[in-house]
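Lab notebook, bench 4. Still working through the backlog of constructs that have no structural model yet. Next entry is a single chain of 742 residues. Request: give me the structure tokens for it.
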Amino acid sequence: MPGKMAMIFGASNILWIVFAASQAFKIETSPESRTLVQIGDSVSLMCSTTGCEAPSFSWRTQIDSPLNAKVRNEGTKSTLTMDPVSFENEHSYLCTATCGSKKEEKEIKVDVYSFPKDPEIQLSGFPEVGKPLTVKCVVPDVYPFDRLEVELLKGDSRMKHQEFLEDMERKSLETKSLEVAFTPTLEDTGKALVCRAQLHMFETDSEEASPKERETYRELQVYILPKNTAIHVHPSTSLQEGDSVTMTCSSEGLPAPEIFWNKKLDNGDLQLLSGNATLTLIAMKVEDSGIYVCQGVNVIGANGKEIELIVKEKPFTVDISPGHQVATQIGDSVVLRCSVTGCETPSFSWRTQRDSPLNGIVSSDRTESTVTLTSVSLENEDHYLCTVTCGRRKMEKEVQMKVYSFPQDPEIEMSGLLVSGTPVTISCKVPLVYPSGHLEIEIHKGETLMVNKHFLEEMNIKSLENKSLEVTFTPTSEDTGKVLVCQAKLHIGEVESEPKQRQSTQTLYVNVAPTDTTVSVNPSAVLEEGSSVNMTCTTRGLPSPKILWSRQLSNGDLQPLSENTTLTLISTKMEDSGIYVCEGINEAGRSRKEVELIIQVAPKDIQLTAFPSESVKEGDMVIISCTCGNVPETWIILKKKTEMGDTVLKSIDGAYTIHKVQLEDAGVYECESKNKVGSELRSLTLDVKGRENNKDYFSPELLVLYCISFLIIPAIGMIIYFARKANMKGSYSLVDAQKSKV
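Model written out:
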């Protein structure tokens, strides 16, 4: 046991030694030994310890210069921050950490550089073909410039390369440049000038420092001075007053020269006229004569060409517009214009041929005079003359004013609805026409001319007229879709070669009244009570007819039921019997079809009675009556059951009368009611009591009963007859004369 304890104690000592060794006082830095920082940026150096809970830190430079930085201690870590970095921060910084009697120190080298901007490419002038040019590559604010390398390329070719290896006398930001001269050619256009600068720096702890690199790209634009400037003149350089001339100038160069037109003044100065290649001068005057200069100009320079224009005087002329004749619609406005060429100071006067008032506003300005007629009326139809006086010369021009009225498109009217087979009158109306004697109206249906008319009647007075043209035709269904055209033409005469035209169109839609209306009944028009029936109605027409189902009431009126094609009755009853009417209806008319629906009911509610009683005395009168409740088309058969078989009794409307009952009349009487749907039986037993001594017995009571029977029998018959009439339609045939019908 003591041996084991010794072993445990020894192992514990070993673990303690290992633990103590692992926690030995150590110092670490970040970055580890070296860092590279651009001037103006910020950087932080960190110093930390292990193996000491409360170390103390101090920072200094290797040459004991000022730190130019801020120190921050926090626990086992100390940070030295330089913001912004400057030349004064290019040192080896030492971090000293003290823990009790232990002291550790570690160094971090800070290298600074400046390479803030891309190089600048500078040209000594515009790159002109055949003219030497200096290209300069400028790298600003570099440090340390002895590690700078610069190269200049044109396209893929290196033009020049230089390493700036000269010694630096002091720390400063330097601007370095590289120059090269060359003569541009046209092939250099579009090539790239590239200035590439590299700053080779020291290695850092993290990785080998690759060169700092910047470059600038500039595409070459090669220029050519304008040359070969030429002028083309149309129609000629020798002109008359009022003529126009177009001069086009061209010039070669790169970039393409801009064209400027100038006129050379008497003092030799140039007056700018246009910045377009083409210069057009209209209505030229004598003073427009002179020397015109065209210049081709680009950023390199200019090249010019001169040409002389000579403008001669033109004879005095007068023009009137819109022409020697003008047509104006009533209500419009028109301007009559009289202009002079060949006279600088003309005088004007206006009059009508009839010397009537002008009814217009006269305005004159230098070589032009106008008469403005607002809201032209019939009174303005006249000849207007413009007299121009120029010095001792006088000239007169005339314009004939024709007025017309044609303000609206024709109106198409129809006498009624278009129905196939029914004649209809079409009217084409042209309102407020003048002159109506020049009017022509045509009515077309599709490609066919239906009617036309020239309204050539004489007009005694000037007035606005309403004219119309009618035509009657019978449409057919084939006319649907055709276009009805009403075209009106107003022939103004010589004023206009083409007549004024207006037209209206209307697409024809011909209606066809409903026809061929049919009704199909499924399963049948004769049904048993409780069955269902579908009655389907079809009809033809245009537009497609609407279906209307009705039931004919007893007074002949129709009771509307449905607007569906098929009328369905479910679980029919006897009262559903009757006349059903289908109507096809559209705008052109209606078509009707009737169907009679018969609902058959099996006999029911049979009553078999004996009057006055089922027990009578011999010699009495008894009436045996059989009725069936309101079921039409029913046969009533009265029988007496005998040992020899059934005897069919001859009943009248279901009633059988025995005037004097005999003993042999006693027995079972049976009534059978039947129709096509079914049958039903009822029976009663008549009991006849015999009289004493078999003598005829007559009493006052029997006399009264006998008399009453003669009144009751007809009454019962009439009641049965009218009841049956109220519930039966049509007529029926009985099987034989012995069967009763009710």
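Notes after review: The first strand starts at residue 26 and ends at 30. The domain at 26-113 is CATH 2.60.40.10 (Immunoglobulin-like). Flag for follow-up if needed.
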